[in-house]
Backbone:
């Protein structure tokens, strides 16, 4: 399975890290040039970008558009791919698990990531793979496997309503989603939390931009629509959790134990 790595032109240090990681793990890969707020299509004032639960940062819009570029590549290639943000770290056993996932039917999406937040997953693991059915995620789009069937579902949803990339994925309930257990990926900013050596210092370009207030340029009607969408999303999430109680559990997915040495050569 090849990897599609989302990378900003200016983030050459992260690209070097990913080149090293793909070399160490023996994963074929291709770079997906990340969208920036300046190159965003449609532009930031298009109605598409104003249909979520709150106003989106320009960086969140650009990140979703970057993921959509990768989703389109999955459809074009017509094969499952590993999609990575350029600050994702992968466990040693990732290539073996990827090969097994690629040969399995009935999957749209597999999250490889854990991020200090509980997820709702099936009590019983998959019969042949180290994955569990994923019923509700809340955060994280740094590392996941996407099949063409899943890519088409995500592109269809993103065409009429934008959201932060992790919310766009976790909120697409038509996806047949699974979770790697143990998790095979973390982001660089989670290294200390999980005791994994951090090969590169990092700072989030998303969080560096403050969230725009709903009162900033939005009419009272649009502000009420934001609130209504937020309440509706919480109700759907709550119902999904309650309806899966007999077969699901809310757990913190542990990370894998072995991580490669990604020290860049001198």
Residues:
């Amino acid at each position: 399975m090849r990897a599609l790595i989302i990378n900003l032109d200016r983030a050459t240090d992260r690209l070097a890290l990913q080149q090293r990681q793909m070399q160490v793990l023996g994963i074929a890969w291709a770079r997906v040039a990340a969208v920036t707020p300046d190159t965003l299509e449609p532009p930031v004032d298009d109605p598409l970008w104003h249909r979520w639960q709150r106003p989106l940062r320009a960086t969140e819009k650009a990140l979703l558009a970057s993921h959509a570029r990768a989703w389109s590549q999955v459809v074009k290639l017509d094969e499952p791919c590993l999609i990575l943000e350029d600050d994702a770290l992968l466990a040693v056993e990732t290539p073996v698990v990827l090969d097994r996932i690629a040969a399995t039917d009935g999957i749209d999406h597999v999250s490889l990531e854990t991020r200090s937040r509980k997820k709702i997953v099936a009590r019983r693991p998959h019969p042949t793979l180290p994955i569990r059915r994923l019923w509700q995620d809340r955060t994280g789009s740094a590392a996941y496997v996407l099949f063409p069937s899943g890519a088409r579902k995500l592109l269809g949803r993103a065409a009429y309503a934008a959201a932060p990339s992790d919310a766009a994925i976790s909120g697409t309930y038509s996806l047949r989603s699974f979770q790697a257990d143990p998790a095979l990926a973390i982001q660089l900013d989670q290294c200390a939390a999980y005791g994994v050596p951090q090969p590169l210092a990092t700072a989030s370009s998303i969080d560096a931009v403050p969230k725009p207030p709903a009162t900033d340029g939005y009419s009272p009607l649009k502000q009420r629509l934001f609130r209504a969408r937020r309440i509706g999303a919480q109700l759907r999430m709550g119902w999904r959790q309650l309806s899966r109680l007999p077969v699901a559990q809310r757990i913190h997915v542990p990370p894998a134990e072995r991580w490669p040495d990604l020290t860049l050569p001198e």
In short: Residues 220-243 form the longest helix (24 residues).
